[in-house]
Amino acid sequence: MNKDLQLREEINKRLEQVRTKKMKDPYRLAFHLTPPVGLMNDPNGLVYFKDKYHVFFQWNPFGTKHTFKAWGHFSSEDFIQWEEHPPALVPSEWYEKDGCYSGSALTHQGKLYLFYTGNVRTNNGGRESYQCLAVSEDGIHFEKQGPVIELPKGYTSDFRDPKVWREKDRWYMVVGAQTESLEGTVVLYSSLDLLKWKLEGPLAGPGISMSNKFGYMWECPDFFSLDGKDVLIYSPQGLESQQYQFQNLYQSGYIIGSWNRQTKRFEHGKFQELDYGFDFYAPQTFTDNKKRRILIAWMGMGDEQEQNHPTVQNDWLHALTIPRELRVKGGRIYQRPINELKTLRKSHFEASFNLVHEQKEIDIYTQLQEIMIEINKFDGKELSLHLQGNWKLTYFKDQGVVTFERMRFDRSEKETRKCLVETVKHIHILQDHSSVEIFLNNGEKVFTSRFYSESTCTHCLLSVDGSAALHWQNWDLDSFCF
Asked: Tens digit of pLDDT for each residue in 356-382?
């Protein structure tokens, strides 16, 4: 038996071992993609192919640590009913023996192409990385073509996560990289046939489009045009934490500007974060059949708390965010939940409140909630939202600050993330069994976080220090179908 078949048999046995256990976990998410077993991290290969949305992801079916790495696979016709497929890629070849790392997908001449990084650990403790290709005619079974790019001079083996796109008659690829001087950067390639690639040089980074070092490694780059602007999304590692930004171990954000297609020079503005919550990393985007630019990210963080998630006891860890449509407005990316998620809405409550230095309890009957709050008027210092005793969102108007608070996974203390915002007029919340995604001002600022609570509270507590006129709506939500 070859190694590919052997690994697939081992994965199938693992799936059978946990199939009944999977549905009993109270923290298993209902309208987010989660791994059937084991650890999920980066979304990979987001693509629309043969009338379906395909979502691949980094997957370790054998445990909840970052060891074995395959590509898991889901597909859907509507983002609501999902089908689970066998892994698209397992690390069976010499050039990927220690992991099929992150990458992207594209369609060409009726076939689906996956570009990914093959990770190899050497006997002396070093690493080799190869940018690899696999091709499929049905979107399920893939034939590996092997490496198409090897490590160029001037970079360390931290060289990974290829994202490929087409402009006119030419293909382009960006790769996340670390220079030999230990600086993060994004490298650009071009190709006429998807097989032979020309190194164009760095697209962005110190000495190219930035004057100073900005982290020691840039992961998961994604380059695209939207609303008349060119956007580079990436995840820099090694940024120093500041009071209102860079508060996680690793960050994810973007720079917006203009890319000269002839000179390959990218003039851009400052780095801006995509999310200010605890659990958001490695975002990837794609254009769907409706010409929308849609983003999905890993709803996790590989920090010191990772193994304290209580889901580890049930043999699974992490999830993906809901799909979000992106727009560029006023030099900023706005993120909003895709419209298809509205079909999950069930019972509805709506009311207007005028609160003056008081608290208002609103009954919440299920953990699966969508909440929309319009702040029509607010004169005061502080407005807070405490949902079912699990987490707390607070707007400090005089400081221009919003904070999100939860209990640490080890239950030792509460912890906070915060961001600056000029004003808050609209709050949009989607809460699952153990996750929440909060969109402020129609997606101007976003907080994404997991949370775990033993609370049995069935209400939301609105607190106002001052006076506020609010319009409230909430819906009980349904689950994804598998």
From this structure: 999 999 999 899 999 999 999 999 999
> How confident is residue 345, by pLDDT bands cut at 50, 70 and 90?
very high
In degrees and rounded to multiples of 5, residue 277 shows phi and psi of -85, -170
Residues contacting residue 337 through CB under 8 Å, at least 6 positions apart: 322, 323, 324, 325, 428, 430, 437, 439
Residue owning tokens 């989660």: 34
**Mean pLDDT (the chain, rounded):** 96
Q: Where are the beta strands (DSSP E) in 95-183?
A: 100-108, 111-121, 127-136, 143-150, 155-167, 170-179
**In sequence order, what are the beta bridge partners of 372?**
428, 473
Q: Tell me the C-alpha to C-alpha distance, in Å, between residue 84 and each of 55, 81, 297, 449, 460.
A: 10, 10, 19, 25, 35
Tokens 């005089």, located at residue? 398
C-alpha closest to that of 266 among 219, 234, 288: 234
Task: For residue 181, give every residue at least 6 positions away whose Cβ sits within 8 Å of its Cβ, in sequence order, or none.
Answer: none
| CA 59/CA 38 separation, integer angstroms | 7
Residue 22: pLDDT over 80: no
CB–CB of 334/459 below 8 Å?
Answer: no
pLDDT, residue 1, reads: 62
Give the span between the Cα atoms of 408 and 403, in whole angstroms. 15
Residues recognised as catalytic: 42
Measure the CA–CA gap between 395 and 445, rounded to whole angstroms.
13
Give the tens place of pLDDT for each residue, 253-286.
999 999 999 999 999 999 999 999 999 999 999 9
Q: For the chain, count helices (H), then strands (E).
A: 1, 32
243 DSSP assignment: S
**Which phi-psi region, left, alpha or beta, contains residue 282 (left: φ > 0; alpha: ψ -120 to 50)?**
left
Residue 24 predicted with pLDDT over 90: no
Task: Give the number of C-alpha atoms closer than 13 A to the C-alpha of residue 166, restricted to the C-beta side.
Answer: 12
